[in-house]
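ugh ok so i messed up the first submission bc i forgot one of the chains. this is the corrected input, ALL of the components this time, i swear. 321 residues overall. if the numbers dont match what u have on ur side tell me asap before i send this to the collaborators (the ones from the other lab, u know who)
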Amino acid sequence: MSARIAVVEDNPDNRLLVRAILEDQYDVEEYEAGPPALAAFAVAAPDLLLLDISLPGMDGVEVLRHVRATPHLAGLPVVALTAHAMTGDRERFLAAGFDEYVTKPIVDETILLDTIAQRLARRQSRPT
Amino acid sequence: MGGRKAPVAFDRQSRRDGACNLDGAWNDGNAGRGGALRPSAPGVCDGARPPAARSTRLRLPSTPSMTVVSPTAEPPVLAPRALALIERVGGAALLCQLATLYAGYAPQRVADARAAIAAADAPTLRAACHALKSGSAQLGVERVSARCAALEADATAGVVAAPAAIDALEADLAFALAALAARVAVTAAEPIA
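and heres the new structure output, hopefully the right one now
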């Protein structure tokens, strides 16, 4: 069974591109904002979350805080997928609790695919 | 704001057919000459031939690796790396779908930015420009993205740009949409490998 990847991203074209990149290998579910994603995760957690930072309303960092504060989601791998690519942004987002950081625009799909594969492998090898 | 989004279906069958009917999806690129951008009707990426050349308002040479540069040059209107990714992942069908989505929302984001400037609302201006910056960059619409980045940086610092900055953004967007339509037509017309 394919791993489930949740994508929270407000730009429809970015969601479509991510889906096109991932859907050969993963089950992709899309959300345009944080609150509906969190509501869905309360029912069924994905295997990995790709999370935009600059979302309208609840931003990505706040979504992450909710994820980390929810017991059954606390260990969920969360990858920041963001156009915030200034010096220091990577460190800032990793310090906030993201597991990985991938910048937009995506110009090399293998970076995203490798990041996801590594995070999923790490999760599966984690002792339970 | 809705819940889980029904995905925009990416039609893998038609990705290699590469046909794209963008009639109605593009404005006529005259914003810089006093015209106004308008939100576009949804385009159709219907997988039916013939390719979209008839739908485009700007015809460019059929050079697959072309970089479209406006008369005033840097940065390029369309960036080849981003477009190459899209074409590699999903061919003409994906490029058409992404371009159509972009043509649908980008003019509204410009309108949002213009309204924010009129209201001296830096946070809203920042949000509109950030969103358009991101979507533009992913589609390779580099000059629009660069303008948005500058506007976003100013707005982050609390500086609201002059309306003329939005006029320039609007003109660049109009040029980019026309160039994008031409690129879609070229990609769709390329022989399938």
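quick check: Chain B touches chain A through 31 residues (CB under 8 Å). that seems consistent at least. The helical segments of chain B are 80-118, 122-138, 142-156, 163-189.
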